[in-house]
Amino acid sequence: QVQLVESGGGLVKPGGSLRLSCAASGFKFSDYFMAWVRQAPGKRLEWVSYVDGSGGSIYYGDSVKGRVTISRDNAKSSLFLQMNSLRDEDTAVYYCARPNQVAGLYHGFDVWGQGTTVTVSS
Amino acid sequence: EVVVTQSPDTLSVSPGERATLSCRASQSVHSDLAWYQKKPGQSPRLLIFGASTRATGVPARFSGRGSGTEFTLTISSLQSEDFGVYYCQQYFGWPPAWTFGQGTVVEIK
Fold it and tell me: Using the beta-carbon criterion (under 8 Å), do A50 and B96 form an inter-chain contact?
């Protein structure tokens, strides 16, 4: 079945780095753009980053721009998020998410991973 | 940035009753709005997209309406499994600058 499984979260000190991974299965990974979405404790969901199916078009949310890098490996059906210069406010559950594509158009996210927790604390 | 505001923050509803949740966007997002249900320890579940289209497998008691800046999600007859936090998300425009509302907690009375 269609599945996304994140890994790589953990406890890191402010200023540190972490690399999140998302393993996709059950669908043709390269046919979909992919995204990372996070949720800090008690906060709303926040879109973090987007990468198109080829990896050639990338966008970031303002709160992480310049500090994170999204990438993908279509041969391994995997999505990554390299996070640098981490701050307390980056503490969150990070989800990878697949778009709900209808007639080639994006309409929300219909497949989500279980999430991986990133805690930034000294 | 399009700011998305939901109301109320918390809704207590008895089983079998109707629940109506609201979502307002700070500028028009046309019909590019989705609703999600999230339960503790689980990932969000897509319920509605395009403001009014139910996602695959979503029961008919869930319905969405609206366009522009005002949207509603209605649960026509609340079931015990419908508790959780409901989020709306706007996805209008390009490049992506997708934003979510702060959520409405639906409690079973």
Answer: yes
With CB atoms and an 8 Å threshold, state whether B100 touches A47.
yes
- Residue among A59, A100, A115 whose CB faces B55 most closely: A100
Q: State which residue of chain B sits closest to A4, comparing Cα positions.
A: B43
Q: Which residues of B53-89 are buried (b: 16+ CB within 10 A; e: fewer)?
A: bbbeebeeebbbebeebebbbebeebeeebebbbbbb
pLDDT tens-place string over residues A70-84: 999 999 999 999 999
What per-residue confidence (pLDDT) applies to A103? Answer: 87
Distance, CA of A66 to CA of A24 (rounded, Å): 26
> Using the beta-carbon criterion (under 8 Å), do B49 and A112 form an inter-chain contact?
no
Is A59 in the B-facing interface, judged by CB distances under 8 Å? yes
How many helices (H) and strands (E) would you count in chain B? 0, 11
Report the pLDDT averaged over residues B17-31. Answer: 97
Mutation target among A37, A50, A95, A110 for the B interface, most CBs of B within 10 A = A110
Q: Pick from A1, A67, A57, A5: which is nearest to A33 by CA?
A: A57
> Does residue A7 contact residue A20 with C-beta atoms inside 8 Å?
yes
* Residue A69, amino acid: T
How does pLDDT run across B42-62, given as a tens digit for each residue? 999 999 999 999 999 999 999
Residues of chain A short of pLDDT 70, as ranges, are none
